[in-house]
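Two quick folds needed for the group meeting slides. Do the first one here.
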Amino acid sequence: MAAECVLFSTKKRSGAEEFDGDGLFKPKKSMLSTVPAAWEDPAAALASARHEFGEHGGVNMSIEASATFTVMEPDTMRRMFSGELGPDRDFFIYSRHFNPTVLNLSRQMAALEGTEAAYCTASGMSAISSVLLQLCSSGGHVVASRKLYGGTHALLTHFFPRACNITTTFVDIGDHETVKNAIVEGRTKVLYFESISNPTLTVANIPELSRIAHEKGVTVVVDNTFAPMVLSPARLGADVVVHSISKFISGGADIIAGAVCGPESLVNSMMDLHQGSLMLLGPTMNPKVAFELSERIPHLGLRMKEHCHRAFTFAARMKKLGLKVIYPGLEDHPHHELLKSLVNKEYGFGGLLCLDMETEERANRLMNYLQNFTQFGFMAVSLGYYETLMSCSGSSTSSELSAEEKALSGISPGWVRMSVGYIGTLEQRWGQFEKALSRMQDAGFFKN
């Protein structure tokens, strides 16, 4: 499908208008992204999405910073609130509902993930919580991977049972028979997992898990934050894809944002005036943030390739040095062949690697040397930044898990998660890593 080019009139239309001032027919635009009919590649899909021009012909879209929107005829407002007129025909009510700038970013996210529609939110956690609350009612049940980001785990373990009467069964997502047995027909509404888990880098068999869930009428929701461009869960069978856009998609560690990508019917239901979780809970994205992000998505593919290339190179070299490195791009990773069969070609195997330093003391000493002695990277949570970010998962982003839950997830006390950056030359950065490692050895941290 070719890119859709739409002409906009500068005057506000009435509810009856079908043509603009020059007599040109204005196509009814749905929230659908213009995705190629035959899946090609995330970059190709992004290039095929509709391009939004600025108000005065600028190559970049204008920022619609208005909280509320005018109408030309009194009856138009009634028709908007009744659902007869909406953003598919450029009628907007209030920016907590739909905002043109946020909607444009949402089209880009839908194109990126190959879904019918998407809508962007104020954070990744708001995207996750909103979609689960839309799909689950009181008394509902979720089956989830036990290997999840700590915040998501806490949401499912503590908040949902207390506040919403929604319970979760946590399973080993790699044990498909256990997943199948955990699904309670008629009660389980969602199967939830991460495409590549945080922080253990476990790879989910998305096609098989989707098949199991769909056989029992369960919706599959996948967090793809660790693998934009690398994996396309919707293409592989998932129903809904969620993101923390704050990470790789933003790339600047300066924005908090999220997205829900999925069927148009789901996105519309989440924006419903009476029952929509996004509409009523209000995790609204600022249009200025949406504009910033829309300018970064076009070069996401280039950034991901370099993140992945460096992560692979560093992981391979660390392994040769005898370090216990976890990276699904290495042939000895238990899910390497699975990931090879699922990835979009040419993007690599992900931009994160992990080092198991066994004890928290050794992990902290290594990170201290890497930041404060050699300037290899920064001790900070989050990921997808142009600098390398490092954290000891057990005492930071997975601290919400109990000691038993960490053990079941495979998170050792010395688990160091590295989001590999791309600034500086590869050899410069590797030299900094080797220098820190040498200092660790000199201090006796690798003696038995």
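Then this one, please, same format:
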Amino acid sequence: MSDHTPDHREPGRGDPEVIAVRRGMFGVGDSGDTSGYGGLVKPVAMPGAATRPYGGCFDAVVDALIAALGAQRYAAAVERVVVYRDELTLDIRREQLRAVATALRDDPDLRFELCVGVSGVHYPEDTGRELHAVYGFLSITHNRRLRLEVAVPDADPHIPSLFGIYPTTDWHERETYDFFGIVFDGHPALTRIAMPDDWEGHPQRKDYPLGGVPVQYHGATIPPPDERRAYN
């Protein structure tokens, strides 16, 4: 979290929400660590919901999205607005993600022409919202940036693909699927991008083993070209 005191917060910034307390470096325990990192105690805090005025151009962006979607659909789509470190993030319900992304792209007052990437985050302590997909957007027309975040449970890690709206998400969604296990429904070729097809687990989740992972490449074979994956 920022070192800002309550009297020096950004406009609209809410109180942080502590979801867990992390002990030690990287969450590893009983490791025989003698470096001193094992004694670290740090809260896992999520930025709190913002209130108006959000500051800067953020109010105009939110107002334009409300106008594009309609107030009722906006309320159904946006769980909360977060203003943190001069950045605007909208927490979106997955059922409404495509509608929000389409409005961001097409509405002349928004015109976020480019989705610059998709990232995954794993919060094991955020019960029922363990997996987060984070999307960065850029409006070249208005010189603005925006972030959308979608949270889903580990037991149901499905999020609609944005490939049909922003084709640049193609490989980003594949990488997030590979490393975090988030399934992007509707993606044209949702296969692993870095790990082998038969790799077990998702290496960037926080509960993935840090050591002692078997060398799964040992004895691996490469199939002939006519038996490899093909993309249309």
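Slide caption for protein two: The chain is about 20% helix and 30% strand.
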